[in-house]
Predict the 3D structure of the following.
Amino acid sequence: MTVSTAAAFARSVVAAGHPLRLWVDGRRRDVLVPAGVRADHGLNLFLDVAPTNSAAVDVQDEGLAADLSFSGHAFRVWVPWIAVQLLVDLATGAETAFPEHAPPPELPADLATDPWSMCSFCGMDPRDRAVVVGGVEARICDVCVAAAAEVVAAQRASSAPDRET
Ligand SMILES: [Zn+2]
């Protein structure tokens, strides 16, 4: 019930062109945010979604997807409503709280995650991806490796004619 209330509230705020603040339990593995953001903020993760580009904000029945910028890097976040305990319309101050979504101090093991084991590029938990290759300060999953390989191949293909001339 409250999940549909959250979706309805978020839709109305975004439709009005107002910025929306979400209070998110950033520890949950079903919340997709950059690994460093998850580690820094934990259960008190506040995300502000400014609908300057409404196409970048996708309010769905199950949660909200949005292209947000973290330290200048774009990242498509996904927040299920079950992980949101407060929504605020930053233009009017109107709030909708979901106390039943308030996170337990100790997250159940199946929802908990080790932030530093997650893919640094897509934020996915290694339990949801086949392979995670670790570097000194970052990790990459098999899906992101494949995506990166496509980008490299495309760049090589487009630059190849230049090399031959
Ligand atoms: Zn990844």
User: Anything to note?
Assistant: Residues 142-164 form the longest helix (23 residues).
